[in-house]
Design brief:
Low-confidence stretches: none
Structural class: mainly alpha
Strand content: under 5%
Shape: globular
Helix content: 55-70%
Radius of gyration: 12 Å
Distance between the termini: 33 Å
Order of helices and strands: HHHHH
Oligomer: single chain
Largest sheet: none
Number of strands: 0
């Protein structure tokens, strides 16, 4: 079963279910806290480039026990939606 909801919300909920703080996820993934917080808030513009964003989301998903493939599909869909909204 795939998670439902936006990528940031699902990652934040999974982190809380794992009883992890954002600091613990940062330590595990080596992704800076400010970028993890931006992902949870879906402030993707804060992250310096799409390649970094995708890598950070994948690492975040792995750290909280979510499917990496789902995470990539979800972030690609979110980015496509944003591009359509600004076009």
């Amino acid at each position: 079963m795939e998670p439902r909801g936006s990528v940031g919300t699902v990652l934040a909920e999974a982190r809380r279910r794992c009883a992890m703080t954002i600091e613990q996820v940062a330590e595990t993934t080596r992704v800076p806290i400010r970028y993890l917080a931006a992902i949870e808030a879906e402030r993707f513009d804060v992250i310096p480039g799409v390649i970094y964003l995708k890598g950070f989301v994948k690492a975040f998903a792995r750290a909280v026990g979510l499917c990496e493939r789902w995470a990539m599909d979800a972030i690609n869909a979110a980015l496509s939606e944003r591009r359509r909204a600004t076009a």
